[in-house]
Amino acid sequence: MMAATKHGNGPSVGQDAILPHVSICQAAAEDRLRFYRGRSMLGTFRPGDYLTLEAVPIAAIRPGDVVVYRGVDREGEPDEVVHRAVAAGTGGLVARGDNNPCSDSVLVTADNLLGRVSHVERDGKVRSVRGGRWGLLRAWVFRTWRLTQRRGWRLMAFVGRWPYRGLRSSGLVRRLWRPAVVKVRVETENGPLVKFVCGQRTVARWWPQTGRFQCRKPYDLIIRRPGRGWLASR
After folding, report:
1. Sign of torsion, CA 70 76 78 82?
2. Is this model's pTM higher than 0.70 or not?
3. In the chain, N or C: fewer CB atoms in 10 Å?
4. What pLDDT score does 154 carry?
């Protein structure tokens, strides 16, 4: 996960950020506390978690430890990053977010290392952050599960496509499910637009001049594409 302490306007939208958590009672420890936000370490951290850093030399970092270092964001701007060290590279440590498919482009070195994440606080409960071999195992299990989940949904969508199309063409659902759908004609700059409204929700749209038709699932099981003469008969 890319994470950063931004200056000026704060972290940009869509970037993972580690923001300093500062209060009067914690002012002396503000260099060791971070407020997490982002997505690339989801599964290990959640937005809103408080991370505690411990100052350690680069030689003490093991593959599997979660570190915070000065890196760059997606625009190449200086930023703070919290990721897991996964391997030793030439000139530094290779890091990657638990939820990221690729390793970071910047190596973790003695010059940019800010610390190792030792604890995380969530909902008032503090727990230690496991590193080393257990950390690598956790990251591997999570990444494998996410990959399997994504591929499983794609497979289900592909396999279920044909039965769904058959159900739609059969017209069976139209005989059993008859929600109140109201057709509303609207004049736009590009010509007439017909909306199909169910309750307070627009479930389908039809542009008569171009023939373009959009319909939300599962309403496409009951709403047919209007014919060319539909608008003239209304």
Report:
1. negative
2. no
3. C
4. 61
